[in-house]
Amino acid sequence: MTTKILIPLFVVALSVLPLFLYLNNCRFMQRFYWRMVFLHNARRLYTLLLVLVLLVINATLYVSMNVIISLLMMTVVLALSSYRTMAKTLRLLQYRRRIFGLLTVAAAALMVMPGCLCIGLTLASLLLGAFFFPSARVLELSETEEYGARMLLQPDIIVREYYFI
């Protein structure tokens, strides 16, 4: 019974969340962007929460559907659990547009296939994590003092410069 509720909830959250929050200039997202750019611990917490979400998705699928491949996906996720590895993976997804596009198509196709739902949800969660992880360009800019002062005076600028567009 919980499977019939949780799995569509995961799919809806993965598809609706970026629609409302991506490039949004609300106060909550400005604070999120600011913390992700200027606080190393916020980026670290973000990657660990992403690993936790991936583990919850795969554990739910394993317990409810008894899909053995989700154990393999949990092993892959645990291999990504260090901050450096996850940050490198998210940056790779950000800057390799072809890989990002191919994985997006693969995640959509795998979510439709009956036995591959856990792989599709894991890929979709990683892609969503790459959406909201700060780009290397904005992290380099944040190390200068004038950029930090400008962000304090004009917090809406960070929304435009945050993403890897």
The separation of the N and C termini measures: 41 Å
Estimate what percentage of residues fall within beta strands: under 5%
How many strand segments? 0
Average pLDDT metric: 82
- Biggest sheet: strands, sense, closure? none
Principal-axis shape equals elongated
Rounded radius of gyration (Å): 17 Å
What structural class should be given to the helix and strand makeup? Answer: mainly alpha
Order of helices and strands: HHHHHHHHHH
Uncertain spans: none
**What is the count of helical runs?**
10
Which percent bin holds the helix content?
A: over 70%
Describe the structure.
With 165 residues, this protein is mainly α. The protein contains ten helices and no strands. α1 packs antiparallel against α3, α3 runs antiparallel to α7 and α5 packs across α7. The relative contact order is 0.15.
Task: Set out the fold topology.
Elements: H1 2-21, H2 27-38, H3 40-65, H4 69-79, H5 83-95, H6 97-112, H7 117-131, H8 136-141, H9 145-153, H10 157-162
